[in-house]
Task: structure prediction
Amino acid sequence: MTNRDTIGIDLGSRTTKIVHLTGGKIRHREIFDTGHDPLAGVKQALERIGSADIIATGYGRYLLSENLAARRVTEIKACGRGVYERFPGCRTILDVGGQDCKVIRLNGKGKVVDFEMNDRCAAGTGKFLEVMAQSFDMDIEAFVRMAQATTESITINSMCTVFAESEVISLITSGKPKEQIALGLHQSIAERLQAMLSRMPLEEEIVFVGGGAKNSCLHSILQEKLKQKILRPPDPQLITAHGAALLAGENGEL
Result:
């Protein structure tokens, strides 16, 4: 790690995350909606931060590399580096974002040795729960609290976002308890994520990151299903951007 300033930018489909490091220490961090003109939003943020070596990651990394002379790295590698910096004992990462989810395995040196990714369907992602929350005409935070208000759940049969939304609306109009529907939706997401995790050797420590890790209901259900502790950083959405910023200051192939 050098003493120079570095910036990691994780330009995702829903949100953009930026971490600015000086000498490897976090100097500035921010999250904002990616919006319809992501390049303009990033340029405005960089005007506030100043110049530094930039590594871009996420869905928009090619856009940034072509327009900002930024190097780029996959979100898999950036996420692994960011998690290993915070949790050097981590061997398994669960990363749940707005429109994809990943399971990443690290070796004892923090290098990615395997991964599995679901980016073809909203099931198991933050987008799925956001759409379901909208069915109840509430934001995701209120939706999570509602799910946590009960211990009984109603089974949701469909994991397709479109069909699940129709199923939820049907359950609501038939008078089923909303809390039980909400918990059932969280249970169905957790089962999907558990299935992904089960296809990898589950080695401790397990770390949960991405926007989905902010969902305390989902976190507790996963811990119960896996029967082991799952760690979470206080800023789970920023982990991949942090990892990119760390890689910007390190020598080695990206």
The radius of gyration is 19 Å. The chain is about 40% helix and 20% strand. The chain has a mean pLDDT of 93.
